[in-house]
Amino acid sequence: MLTNILFHTAIAAYFVATCIFVVYLFTHNERVVKTAVGVLTAAFVLHTIVIVLRWAGAGRTPVVNMHESLLFFSWLTVALYMIMLVKFKQRVLGAFVTPFVLLLIISSSFFPKTIIPLAPVLESYWLPVHVVLAFLGNAFFAIAFFLGIMYMIQEHYLKKRKLKGLFYILPSLGVIDELNYRCLQYGFPLLTLAIITGAIWSEYALGSYWQWKPRQVWSLITWFLYAALLHGRLTAGWRGKKAALLSALAFMVLVGSFIMINVILGGAHGISLR
């Protein structure tokens, strides 16, 4: 009961934070964005308590079904934004991250919340290792996606020479591109390690490192997309709009494969993981 109350309170807080961020996009008022960040912080605290209670109640990492997976992924995305907020002071990024997190956590409410036990064959310390690496990598890619959107908006203003609207609150193109690159630099190794630990876990649980199942195939496709993007940045000088567009494409493939595997195909091995 307590977890359910906190869960819905967190949704309400994320909704309020989203509304305040929208107001900020139109008013550019610094007090408004500080209020939005404050409400978002409160929502994150509530979200954290929900995760902890679920973890304690289940006795395992809470990612066994879609409800838990979306709850955990959205929490990691906010946590990463909070870290970037402290380090880079880009509060406006919250106006893009918060609606996405609100969508994820609302979507999680439509899936069964019942705590289900993990199949004995899948019980392993590789579960939390693999899960944290996978979802943290995805969170970095999500932030890179929103930075790509910010880049394209800012470039549009500069290209049209219409210095108005969001132009005055978005960072410079150079700053956005640099942050996008840093997210990719962290996200890609995490994705790589997630695939490796997933293969080790598969061998431990099922006796085979690789079975060419949809989850593994789409993880590999996503890996190649981000590898190509990083390779292009390092060797062919892909920067700016091209990098932003490719980052957006790779993230949409990632999200699309996640939905296909966990919603349409019903997950893999009874667990909603990449």
Give an account of the 3D structure.
By secondary structure, this protein is mainly α. The chain has two domains: 1-117; 132-274. Helix 3 packs across helix 5. Helix content is 76%, strand content 0%. The two termini are 30 Å apart. The protein is flat and about 60 Å long. The chain contains eight helices and no strands. It has helices at 2-27, 30-58, 66-88, 94-108, 126-160, 173-206, 214-235, 240-264.
Annotation keywords:
274 residues, mainly alpha, 2 domains, 8 helices, flat, disordered C terminus
Topology overview:
Elements: H1 2-27, H2 30-58, H3 66-88, H4 94-108, H5 126-160, H6 173-206, H7 214-235, H8 240-264
Please work out how many helical segments DSSP would assign.
8
DSSP summary, beta strand count = 0
- Radius of gyration, rounded? 19 Å
Low-confidence stretches: 269-274
Task: State the major sheet.
Answer: none
Structural class: mainly alpha
